[in-house]
């Protein structure tokens, strides 16, 4: 008989082109628009938060690094160290002069901490000193720290010999002096001092921000300030910072170089930039949890979808779909959902972080790599979320699926 | 002798727990035949149709579709065989509600590897043939029951299968629409299509040239 001869012929299912896979998946999602949109939203929230956190952390780090570039990393500080027993070993009075002899040291300023308190006026109780310290400074301070005045003038050779003070930004704020009114006085060390200037904030040297600065001569005269400096700032040429740093201790105190603390204030900002990473991980973790919840949402929607669409699965099997094609269809649906969510989330994350950066005056950072990574991460979560429902759909026998109606 | 499109030899089917559903069924459907399979509810009609359509494998016996031995094929192979040789029409229509009438019919060619444009062209042609040329862009919800079943028939026929298997095609329709569907099946038969209709409706069975009756899983008459 003729039909017996055909048994050897093999049947290979036709391959479903990618375009058709996407078409069928989109058709499946179109049938349940609201549910699809809501489950994609879950992924979008997760990806948006992760992209925003990473972008913002980049932006704030970039801001700190820009700040670092602006302020320079060529400022060094010298402070008295301690003996083995913990007693302070003062710097010799000659230290500033010695340090000035280091050739790459472009500008040097010595400060002496004065034991005096500051109050807004003598009517303020003596205990309320607002944590402002008094420091006797040399006139080169502004040049060395590259500081600027917000208001008024800095000390000059004349005012350095009279009861005149320049306030750091924080000190001025604590004393309630947002701007300088001529004739303003403060109560410093039990007598009135004229405020001649207010400094802009100095991010590298916050201790100056919290100080009232007075001239060395008046400090020596009124408060018998010590001649040995409590802090020396050295501005070096930018390419020779390390060399200068290496010799500073021995130069400042040749007799006892180990009892000198040499620091680089910019290291604090660099450390802060590095510390951003710690918070980033925390928020990234929260983003990952949101993403996980989103993926579970997709898995849930897909499982329900498989249950509801048993007859469709049966029909497709009857029309010639293989188990693999059914699996691919459901997997493609969850991938499509996740991809849409990931794309929307990535863009939302970028927009949100750009908005925040603008509000904080940071440079707007947009990382195409991050957007792509966000969408890819979403696709991976979609794939994981879709695996089980897709396998379930493929396992259904056609007659069982068709009978379920 | 005309070629056998479907041939069942010694087919038995048992389900665990519910015993024997089909017993020793021998049945040959030849090219261009219109066969009605009748029987009371639970007589095994639908199981027979599922086995004929390779949706289900028999517990024993052999099924040949256009000479291809179904038991020799893997699940994938059977899928490909269905895509090429078998068209199904169900009582519940099983149309995709979110898709248009044309898209529904195009699904009938999706797994046969027909390109999109060709699928569309052939789907529209098939819809014209079943008298739904004016409904191409509509959704199933816009159609009457009879029209929906016509869409399902167009979907089954669009791939030019060797045999069309219809399971109670008028079961969900009023008598007028049902008559229309029977008329359509007869018209297809007159155009040389091979059709097997499972029904419990004696009037439909009587209108078919061949009538196979099942009782408790046994073929009790074939004339």
Structure explained in plain terms:
The complex is a heterodimer of chains A (405) and B (223). Chain A has 13 helices and twelve strands. In chain A, helix 2 (33-71) runs antiparallel to helix 9 (266-308). In chain A, strands 1, 2, 3, 4, 5, 6, 7, 8, 9, 10, 11 and 12 form a twelve-stranded mixed sheet that branches. Chain A is elongated and about 105 Å long. The two termini of chain A are 41 Å apart. The model of chain A is unreliable at 1-8 (pLDDT under 50). With 405 residues, chain A is α+β, with helices and mostly antiparallel strands. Helix content of chain A is 54%, strand content 16%. Chain A has two domains: 19-68 and 271-403, no CATH class; 74-263, no CATH class. In chain A, strand 8 and strand 9 form a beta hairpin. With 223 residues, chain B is of the alpha/beta class. Chain B has a single domain (32-56, 81-222), classed as P-loop containing nucleotide triphosphate hydrolases (Rossmann fold, 3-Layer(aba) Sandwich). Chain B is built from seven helices and ten strands. Chain B has helices spanning 45-52, 75-85, 101-110, 116-129, 145-157, 175-190, 202-207; strands spanning 4-15, 19-30, 34-39, 60-65, 68-69, 86-89, 163-167, 195-199, 210-215, 218-222. In chain B, strands 6-7-8-3-9-10 form a six-stranded mixed sheet, sandwiched between helices. Chain B has a four-stranded antiparallel sheet with strand order 2-1-4-5, with helices on one face. In chain B, helix 3 crosses helix 4 (116-129), helix 3 packs parallel to helix 5 and helix 4 packs across helix 5. The radius of gyration of chain B is 17 Å and the shape is globular. Chains A and B meet through helix 1, helix 10, helix 11 and helix 13 of A and strand 5, helix 2 and helix 3 of B.
């Amino acid at each position: 008989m003729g039909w017996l001869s055909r048994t050897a012929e093999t049947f290979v299912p036709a391959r479903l082109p990618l375009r058709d896979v996407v078409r069928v998946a989109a058709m499946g999602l179109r049938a349940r628009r609201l549910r699809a949109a809501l489950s994609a939203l879950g992924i979008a929230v997760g990806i948006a938060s992760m992209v925003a956190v990473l972008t913002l952390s980049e932006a704030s780090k970039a801001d700190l690094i820009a700040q670092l570039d602006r302020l320079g990393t060529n400022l060094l500080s010298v402070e008295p160290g301690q003996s083995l027993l913990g007693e302070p070993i003062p710097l010799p009075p000659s230290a500033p002069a010695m340090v000035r002899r280091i050739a790459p040291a472009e500008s040097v300023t010595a400060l002496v901490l004065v034991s005096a308190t500051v109050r807004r006026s003598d009517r303020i109780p003596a205990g309320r000193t607002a944590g402002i310290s008094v420091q006797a400074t040399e006139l080169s301070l502004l040049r060395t720290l590259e500081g600027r005045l917000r208001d008024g003038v800095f000390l000059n050779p004349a005012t350095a010999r009279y009861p005149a003070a320049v306030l750091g930004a924080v000190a001025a704020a604590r004393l309630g002096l947002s701007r300088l009114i001529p004739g303003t006085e403060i109560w410093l060390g039990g007598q009135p001092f004229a405020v001649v200037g207010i400094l802009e904030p100095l991010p590298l040297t916050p201790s100056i921000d919290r100080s009232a600065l007075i001239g060395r001569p008046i400090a020596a005269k009124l408060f018998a300030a010590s001649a040995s400096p409590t802090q020396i700032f050295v501005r070096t040429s930018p390419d020779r910072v390390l060399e200068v740093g290496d010799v500073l201790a021995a130069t400042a105190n040749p007799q006892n170089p180990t009892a000198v603390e040499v620091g680089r204030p910019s290291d604090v900002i660099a450390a802060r930039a590095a510390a951003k990473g710690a918070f980033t991980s925390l928020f990234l973790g929260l983003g990952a949890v949101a993403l996980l919840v989103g993926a579970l949402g997709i898995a849930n929607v897909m499982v329900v979808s498989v249950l509801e669409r048993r007859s469709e699965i049966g029909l497709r099997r009857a029309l010639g779909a293989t188990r693999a094609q059914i699996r691919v269809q459901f997997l493609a649906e969850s991938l499509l959902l996740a991809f849409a969510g990931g794309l929307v989330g990535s863009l939302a994350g970028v927009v949100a972080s750009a908005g925040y950066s603008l509000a904080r005056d940071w440079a707007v950072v947009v990382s195409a790599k991050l957007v792509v990574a966000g969408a890819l991460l979403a696709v991976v979560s979609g794939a994981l979320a879709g695996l089980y429902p897709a396998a379930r759909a493929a396992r259904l026998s056609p007659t069982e699926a068709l009978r379920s109606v | 002798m005309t070629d056998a499109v479907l041939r069942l030899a010694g087919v038995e089917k048992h389900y665990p727990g519910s015993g024997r559903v089909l017993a020793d069924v021998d049945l040959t459907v030849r090219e261009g035949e219109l066969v009605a399979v009748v029987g009371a509810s639970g007589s095994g009609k639908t199981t027979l149709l599922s086995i004929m359509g390779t949706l289900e494998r028999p517990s024993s016996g052999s099924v040949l579709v256009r000479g291809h031995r179904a038991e020799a094929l893997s699940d994938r192979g059977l899928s490909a065989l269905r895509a090429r040789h078998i068209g199904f029409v169900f009582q519940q229509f099983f149309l995709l509600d979110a898709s248009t009438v044309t898209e529904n019919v195009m699904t009938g060619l999706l797994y046969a590897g027909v390109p999109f444009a060709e699928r569309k062209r052939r789907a529209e042609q098939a819809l014209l043939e079943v008298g739904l040329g004016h409904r191409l862009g509509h959704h199933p919800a816009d159609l009457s029951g009879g029209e929906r079943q016509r869409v399902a028939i167009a979907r089954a026929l669009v791939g030019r299968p060797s045999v069309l298997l219809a399971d109670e095609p008028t079961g969900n329709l009023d008598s007028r629409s049902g008559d229309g569907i029977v008329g359509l099946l007869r018209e297809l038969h007159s155009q040389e299509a091979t059709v097997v209709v499972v029904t419990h409706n004696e009037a439909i069975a009587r209108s078919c040239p061949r009538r196979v009756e099942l009782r408790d899983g046994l073929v009790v008459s074939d004339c």
